[in-house]
UniProtKB/TrEMBL annotation:
Protein keywords: Oxidoreductase, Pyruvate, Thiamine pyrophosphate
Domain Dehydrogenase E1 component residues, every copy: 15-311
EC numbers for this chain: 1.2.4.1
Task performed by this protein: The pyruvate dehydrogenase complex catalyzes the overall conversion of pyruvate to acetyl-CoA and CO(2).
Biological process per Gene Ontology, one example term: pyruvate decarboxylation to acetyl-CoA
Keyword match Transmembrane: no
Organism this protein belongs to: Marixanthomonas spongiae
Protein name, as recorded: Pyruvate dehydrogenase E1 component subunit alpha
Record-linked CDD domains: TPP_E1_PDC_ADC_BCADC (cd02000)
Known partners and oligomeric status: Heterodimer of an alpha and a beta chain.
Gene, per the UniProt record: pdhA
Organism classification: Bacteria, Pseudomonadati, Bacteroidota, Flavobacteriia, Flavobacteriales
Catalytic activity entry: N(6)-[(R)-lipoyl]-L-lysyl-[protein] + pyruvate + H(+) = N(6)-[(R)-S(8)-acetyldihydrolipoyl]-L-lysyl-[protein] + CO2
Length: 332
């Protein structure tokens, strides 16, 4: 694995803080109805992404996830201005404003969405890895899912074939404790999600998801296994989301005290504490980083505000059309 150095921690701090502030901004503009539809935020889960990116080869490896998907593409190299514009539904967005919140996508950066059907991306991730193996391409696909997705049949079918064919894939369950308002304990007889790998003899384990260096180490081992042809791994990364499931969640299923308690393990504060403890930066230097982050978020907002909406005549250009379909004329 690439060494974890002072620079790694400083980068982790700046990246995670940017992702947090980017999403705080989204929450603000959502309330002003600048961003519409659903909006699922990642606040609290940032170390899962920071650790993974450290272990990945960003020139080759791929990522696919569910609908909590705004900051992952930024980590993979997509311009955050374009992500913000997509959320605003503007034509300068990653999908020309036609996808929106749950559907950020960038083929160029090997980020394959953004999927709203719970568990739908699990076989897709295995399929991408199958293509890489079939065409002998050196790439590993990180396939993320929530704790709410692991009871889907699609997970078991994908696990079975991925193991049988030793596909270059890492399956990652981001266990944030809840699927909408349903806790993990209410959905299954046991709460050790990682054990689902055992039935397929897939290497699997639980991982502390609040510390990026712990995630990086486990992810590195899993990516390495996939890259050398030894097949998939299943990691249950234990994390927490501070905000509601989406913006319209009254959160009656948990107490404010529970959220506060979990925030004591906050990954950004944890990394900052380490930076100060090791004397890797002064308070003034951190203030400069914070200012840089806030300016960058402002720039993204301004870009999205200033961009135009897509032309209405593109509305039917990106939907599937069967040309000889008998009943409906094209472009109604
Ligand atoms: C197949 C399917 N069933 C139900 C839903 C409705 N739904 C949307 S999100 C969600 C909860 C998923 O929770 P989890 O997988 O833990 O992800 P998290 O939101 O915690 O990141 C449900 C049930 C859906 N989108 N798709
Ligand atoms: Mg969940």
């Amino acid at each position: 694995m690439k060494k974890i150095t002072k620079k790694t921690y400083l980068d982790w701090y700046e990246d995670m803080f940017f992702w947090r502030k980017f999403e705080d901004k989204l929450a603000q503009v959502y309330i002003k109805q600048k961003v519409r539809g659903f909006l699922h935020l990642y606040n609290g889960q940032e170390a899962v992404l920071a650790g993974a990116l450290h272990a990945m080869d960003l020139e080759k490896d791929r990522m696919i996830t569910a609908y909590r998907n705004h900051v992952q593409p930024i980590g993979m190299g997509v311009d955050p201005k374009k992500v913000m514009a997509e959320l605003y539904g503007k034509k300068t967005g990653t999908s020309q404003g036609l996808g929106g919140s749950m559907h950020i996508f960038s083929k160029e950066h090997r980020f394959y969405g953004g999927h709203g059907i719970v568990g739908g991306q699990i076989p897709l991730g295995a399929g991408i890895a199958f293509a890489d193996k079939y065409f002998e391409r050196d790439a590993v696909t990180l396939t993320y899912m929530g704790d709410g997705a692991v009871r889907q049949g699609s997970l078991h079918e994908a696990f079975n074939l991925a193991m049988l064919w030793k596909l270059p894939v890492v399956f990652i369950c981001e266990n944030n404790g809840y699927a909408m308002g349903t806790s993990v304990a209410r959905t299954a007889n046991h709460t050790d999600i990682w054990k689902l790998g055992l039935g397929y003899e897939m290497p699997c384990k639980p991982v502390d998801g609040m510390k990026p260096e712990v995630v990086a180490k486990e992810m590195d081992e899993a990516i390495d296994r996939a890259r050398r042809g030894d097949g998939p791994t299943f990691l249950e990364i234990r994390t927490y989301r501070y905000r509601g499931h989406s913006m319209s969640d009254a959160q009656h299923y948990r107490t404010k005290e529970e959220v506060k308690k979990k925030q004591e393990e906050d990954p950004i504060s944890y990394v900052l504490h380490k930076i100060y403890e090791e004397k890797w930066a002064t308070e003034d230097e951190i203030k400069k980083v914070n200012k840089r982050v806030k300016d960058k978020v402002k720039e993204c907002e301004q870009f999205a505000e200033d961009s135009g909406y897509p032309d209405t005549n593109v509305m039917y250009d990106v939907v599937y059309e069967q040309e000889d379909y008998p009943f409906l004329p094209h472009k109604l």
